Amino acid sequence: MPIARKDHSSLQFPCGYLRCARHFKSQGGRKKHWNTSHPIFGPAPATTGVSHTATVEEQPEVLDGYFPADHDNISAGGDNFPAGTSDPSQALNEPDIPDDLNAEFFGLGDRLYRNYHPKLNARPCNVTGQFLPDGAPPTPPPIKSPDDWAPYRNRVEFETAEFLYTCNQMSAGDINILLDLWAATLLKYNDKPPFADHRDLYKTIDATPVGDVKWQSLKVQYTGERPETNVLPWMDQAHDVWYRDPHEVIRNMLGNPDYATEMDYRPYREYLTDGDERQWQDLMSGDWAWNQAETISEDPDTLGSMFVPVILGSDKTTVSVVTGANDYYPLYVSIGNVRNNVRRAHRDAVAIIGFLAMPKTTEEHAKDPKFRKFRRQLFHSSVAKILENLRPGMTTPEVVRFGDGHYRRVIYGLGPYIADYEEQVLLACIVRNWCPRCMSHPDSLDTKSLCHRRDHTEALVEEATYGALWMEYGIVGDLVPFTNDFPHGDIHELIVPDILHQLIKGTFKDHLVKWVGQYLQHVHGTKEAERIQADIDRRIAAVASFAGLRRFPEGRGFKQWTGDDSKALMKVYLPAIEGHVPTDVVRAFRAFLEFCYLVRRNIITESTLGQIQEALDRFHHYREIFESTGVVLTFSLPQQHSCSHYVLLIRLFGAPNGLCSSITETKHIKAVKEPWRRSSRYKALGQMLVTNQRLDKLAAARIDFKTRGMLNGTCLSATLKALKHLRLDKTPDASQPNENSATVPILFNADVTIQGDNKEGEIDNGPTLVQAHVQLAKTPQRKRARTIPELSTELSIPNLYNVLRRFLFEQVHPDDQRPPSEILLSRCPRFEGKIQVFNSASSTFYAPSDRSGIGSMRREHIRACPIWRNEAPRYDCVFVNTDASVEGMGGMDIAHVMCFFSFTFNAVSHPCAVVRWFDKASDGPDQDTGMWIVTPSFDTDHSFSVGIIHIDSIYRAAHLIPIYGAQIISCDIKHHDSYDAFRAFYLNKFADHHAFEIAS
Q1: Which of 394, 516, 868, 902 has the greatest number of CB atoms lying within 10 Å of its CB?
Q2: What residues are paired with 571 via a beta bridge?
Q3: Which residues in 63-73 are b (16+ Cβ under 10 Å) and which e?
Q4: Nearest residue to 721 (alpha-carbon basis) of 13, 192, 9, 29
Q5: Coil, helix or strand for 164?
């Protein structure tokens, strides 16, 4: 029997919101998109307050909000001073602000103001470099036809090429098969597919004129002293270094229209209006950019120019885990003007510009001093050669067209270098285990010492012997850093914090977690230590599920650790070890975790710097237990020592999350690993270079077409619109019927804008400036309860109906301040209608320090379902706003969501949640773990205290971890049993950075 088939639908419903290009096949699909991506925030219900009654349960609501970072006032201390300085203000490089410097308010309202650099102020100019009057419009770009898709024939060709090559990454053979199938459907219409075969597709992409920065190569070889006989094989080997001109790559970044509003054109200092407290965020907000501008502006020819810091990053990566033999050494570039959120969002603000050579030799010769020197100096010489085209622009301004249409005179400068410790050792030309920023001896790294400076290092090289440099100063005297070839280049000054390798992988995984195992073995012996470690693993496995939290079903005992593994373990490890280790160990972990979460903030204030230093001091104090118990012999470890520089480096370079090596490691996937997988594996590098070049061309072409307004709507909607205009332009004879009149599908108006509750009638697709927004899932559960009595039976809550009546009283009488328990039930409304039950709600909130979109908005799902992923029940916990006048946990309670449901009463819809309440164990966090303790709330009859709440009172999901104590937990406890099997819990403030802000 033939199956029923569905024809392709050409209907195209535009989203209708400004700057949203989505189209849909049905009105329902468009409506669902509105609700999730463009929620309209209506007035809050009459009351969102909740009270702890024996019968009221709380329901979560989706929160879409702007949650700014905390700003406390605590002074920072403990920074090392540069060589030759004794004044802290000199160490922090804060020159006096000129008296005539104007302050400008920034952002919404007058909460912030900025002092911009008065000399390097990025004045617009014309193409010849002549400055324009203030307010002059940009020079119009060259006129291009809106139908000029060259080298593509039309939009279909371009989007087909982009889909096959960039999105789907289809192989050449599969492209040919697809095009043949496509051609088979077009033969009867005497038409052809967009491309003849994969070669035609590749040739067309290669002909794209924009984004064309060609790859070049240079050969390098050892040229030092050779023995007269038995020349070592590595001395005769030639190595290829492939690179692209970074000068052209950076000019393309500056001219990218997508970055026009996501770029800082001038160095600035930002302050809170309240108290004039300074804060740091992006690179241009730091003192380093300001100091560079001061130095550059001493040349009068640079006045009015724009400073463009060149950020570099490099790190070896392996593309084949199985063989481990396919290593590559990519070099990346970015610009410091692009803001941190753009660099972290991987919107092509970090570009690959080179593949460096990795000389190899036999194990016999690998430790030869000459070979090691050659390998290290080859790195510096290669980077200097790659960057040489930037050198003229570091002293003489050049005119560049920017994405906002203006020309500006720019001055380039070497900026921060993103690297892990091994790479920093190579960059700074120092001996391993020494610090790349200061001269502390590796035997006592935390001893205060002078900072490395280029002039100081050069003076030492001139005067001291090679051996003395190595032993007394940790300097490799026969190496020259590449930065010495460029103006104002000091590699020691450009070393920046690396959260991933210094804190997460280094101090946490390689040190603290390892030390806990060593402590257990040292104190309890091998057999008992293994038993305790097994219990720690069971505790980790028993942690309840949470949005964005990786579970460890077998604990932390896996061989291949990744950065994501370490990040996930940090969130749940502290409660798992409590009870098995001394209190000082717990407090050491708490201090270190708080340090990590503070430095990871998107915005860091003066008071935050004080908190960072205080957390670091506590960590240094409590870690002493590992030394006093004989677990470790020294804390002189480069990764831990690097923490002492963070306060100073934040002042210099802004928030560290914009310069972390996780950015370059993520770029490895798109620039190295995926191109390698698409290659034939034979001489793969050449194929990888071509792949990267084609990807850049397609990305640049998309930006070009988008800027010219050629990519509005979808390809299908644009075609339908063109056919509609073509049809309307024709003037058919009225006496002759138009046989084709019914063959063109209707195109719905793509220019209409759906106006929400924005007072000005314009919908802003950026961050929505409300604290949070929660909404129920779109699909109710058909097989669950349809009435309150049925829901009461399903949830085993006999008095649920009475709870609902008191909830309705609160909604109908919002001004009544009496506790619900004091309201006579006879005065409460009755409800006998139908309800709809939902398995989840979604919460959207502003979380710039967590993984989020370009607008720093983050969405998570709150679950309350009897079966999750066909395995077990899942009922999440939530933060509930109970007192909006109190900040933080003082105005919030914790509840366990048992059910989401909605009903209509007196023509008003009530989205709600049934919840079990938790009580706070005290008025503040636990002194050891720093986390709030909550316990289930019970009524006088010893039943759970339940309630019904409006979802508008829900802020977001909360994560609880049991307080395990010193007892060994049962192997039978699973993660879905966690909230029922224990009677006291920690509120996990380390679940994510947003939770840390709420629960600290």
Answers
A1: 516
A2: none
A3: bbbbbebbbee
A4: 13
A5: helix
Residue type, 556: R
pLDDT value, residue 852:
59
Integer angstrom CA distances of residue 90 from 270, 292, 451, 822: 20, 15, 12, 65
The b/e string for 461-489 (b: 16+ C-beta within 10 A; e otherwise) is beebeeeebbeebbbbbebbbbbebbeeb
Side chain identity, residue 275: G
For residues 952 and 908, what is the distance between their CA atoms, to the nearest angstrom?
14
pLDDT at residue 383 is higher than 90: yes
| pLDDT tens per residue, range 493-509 | 999 999 999 999 999 99
Find the DSSP H helices in 744-799. 788-795
Nearest 5°: CA angle at 57, between 55 and 63? 160
Angle, helix 788-795 to helix 800-812, in steps of 10 degrees: 130
Cβ(496)–Cβ(416) under 8 Å?
yes
Burial of 257 (0-12, 13-18, 19+ CB in 10 A): middle
Specify the amino acid at residue 855: G
More confident residue, 437 or 94: 437
Alpha-carbon separation of residue 49 from 304, 408, 911, 919 (angstroms): 55, 54, 14, 17
* Average pLDDT in the chain: 85
The angle at the Cα of 909, spanning 903 to 911, to the nearest 5 degrees, equals 65
* Cα four-point dihedral sign 703, 705, 706, 708: positive
What residues form DSSP beta bridges with 410? 306, 398
The answer to whether the beta carbons of residues 895 and 902 sit under 8 Å apart is no
- Which pairs from 508-517 meet CB under 8 Å and 24+ separation? 508/566, 508/569, 508/570, 508/592, 508/596, 509/561, 509/566, 509/569, 510/639, 511/637, 511/639, 511/640, 512/588, 512/589, 512/592, 513/556, 513/569, 513/573, 515/626, 515/631, 515/632, 516/577, 516/581, 516/585
Residue recorded with tokens 């950065």: 563
Check residue 68 and give its pLDDT.
35
Provide φ and ψ at 94, rounded to 5°: -115, 90
How many Å apart are CA 1000 and CA 984, to the nearest integer? 19
